[in-house]
Amino acid sequence: MPTEKLKKFLDENGVKYVSIKHSPAVTSSEIAESAHIPGKKLAKTVIIEIDGRMAMAVLPSPLHVNFQLLEEATAATRISLAGESDFTEMFPDCEVGAMPPFGNLYNMEVYVAKTLTEDDDIAFNAGSHRELMQMKYSDFERLVKPKILDFTDNN
Fold first, then answer.
1. pLDDT value, residue 32
2. Is the pLDDT of residue 2 over 60?
3. CA nearest 39: which of 48, 47, 30?
4. What is 4-153's CATH superfamily?
5. pLDDT of res. 43
């Protein structure tokens, strides 16, 4: 079941969404396959540290964060992948690695890869490794207000 925090937020904002249950999966490619979602429509949430503060990088599951491009785009001094032990407590209602891309619910900035904005819908982990949520990308952008940047490797 999606995190109660997320469901309540979406419901309060009148957002239509679909919950997609799938067999337990951890990697984004396993999740996409299990849920029958094209990889480019499945957003993965990567927790990063930008100049000492935690943030979310959200990108299509087959792509990877290019930290140099992200540093240039944000004018940050240092960006690195956050270790699980650094952020686990920030998401008490989520399984590790299944955080939804709603940084606004966790007091975190959100950076979205420009390529993710090209589709009408977005699907993402809903707090567990057994369920996704799918909704209109325009609703996601309206609620989260992410910074849209070009920071992915296209391979």
1. 72
2. no
3. 30
4. YbaK/aminoacyl-tRNA synthetase-associated domain (3.90.960.10)
5. 92
Q: How far apart are CA 21 and CA 5, in angstroms?
A: 18
Q: How confident is the model at residue 24 (pLDDT cuts 50, 70, 90)?
A: confident
Determine which of 38-42, 59-63, 72-76, 88-92 has the lowest per-residue pLDDT on average. Answer: 38-42
Predicted structure pTM score: 0.91
Is the distance from CB of 115 to CB of 40 less than 8 angstroms? yes
* Spans of all domains in the chain: 4-153
Task: Report DSSP letters for the chain, one per residue.
Answer: ---HHHHHHHHHTT--EEEEE-S---SHHHHHHHHT--GGGEEEEEEEEETTEEEEEEEETT-EE-HHHHHHHHT-S-EEEPPHHHHGGG-TTS-TT---S-GGGTT-EEEEEGGGGGSSEEEEEEEETTEEEEEEHHHHHHHH-PEEE--EE--
Whether the Cβ atoms of residue 35 and residue 98 lie closer than 8 Å to each other: no
Could you tell me how far CA 15 lies from the centroid of its own chain? 17
CB count in 10 Å sphere of residue 41: 19
